[in-house]
Amino acid sequence: MTRYTLGGDEHLFVELSESMSLSAFFTGSLITRELAARGLSGILDICPANASFQVRFDPDVLPVARLRAELEDIEAGLAAASGILQTRVIEIPVLYDDPWTNETQLRFRDRHQDPQSTDLQYAARINGYDDVPSFIEAHSAKPWFVSMVGFVAGLPFMYQMVERDKQIQVPKYLRPRTDTPKLTVGYGGCFSCIYSVRGAGGYQMFGVTPVPIYDPEQRIAHLSDFLVLFRPGDIVKFRPVDRAEYDRIVAAVDSNEYRLRIAPVEFSLPDFESDPAGYPARLLEVLDAR
């Protein structure tokens, strides 16, 4: 049951579920998109999250009772909605088991649950995989939904589109690190992420991508329109690459010649729920069609 909580005079927090699920994310995405589309006077900001969202509003223009009534009306209408989301598929190359995150791990093993293993070895073992390559295959084979962007500028939280019993689960470090390489592909709970900048962190570290996802100066070609790459609702496909390809992509990015593989796509929640094993693979076909 949806729960509404006031945050001071200007914020309304809306919790859709106590646990993360694709349907909870999808409901929040549809509500916030429709709220933005209605263009109500007095709304200052809409912040979607994993299974919730928050609205900042001007109470002198938009009384909270009216805002809540508007949100309840939108949610009630979702039952008759098609469950369709117009979004994008973005391919992100990843060098798994890379030298930079491995070096960082060694500096912080005293903060880890299993100091004798690497983050990948630990994640593979506790999720029942025989070895690291099979775990990397599981992490990269199926696409991910960007459920929210935040914590630091441009950092996406992603939820994998798999059957619920196949969801990877990994705890965060026992104590946070004071360093994480820029563009690290991390994992905590049921979420994968990409650290947009270098800094502290507690997620397990699986690899790095050579593709920038945040550029405040907007000099990089795929970030020239907006400084942040990801939007909630984007679908991400990780593609494992070796060191040689990683280096080639870095050089292409440096010369501003790199072009992301990205394609528009229509996502259907009913189709996913009826075929969670096969539907994600069909979604990715749009990348090969371009």
From TrEMBL:
Entry keywords, A to Z: ATP-binding, Hydrolase, Nucleotide-binding, Transferase
Signal peptide residues on this chain, from the entry's feature table: none
InterPro entries the record matches: CT_C_D (IPR003833), Cyclophilin-like_dom_sf (IPR029000), PxpB (IPR010016)
Domain Carboxyltransferase: 2-223
GO molecular function, one term: hydrolase activity
Record SUPFAM superfamilies: Cyclophilin-like, PH0987 N-terminal domain-like
The protein, known as: Carboxyltransferase domain-containing protein
Organism, as annotated: Nakamurella flava
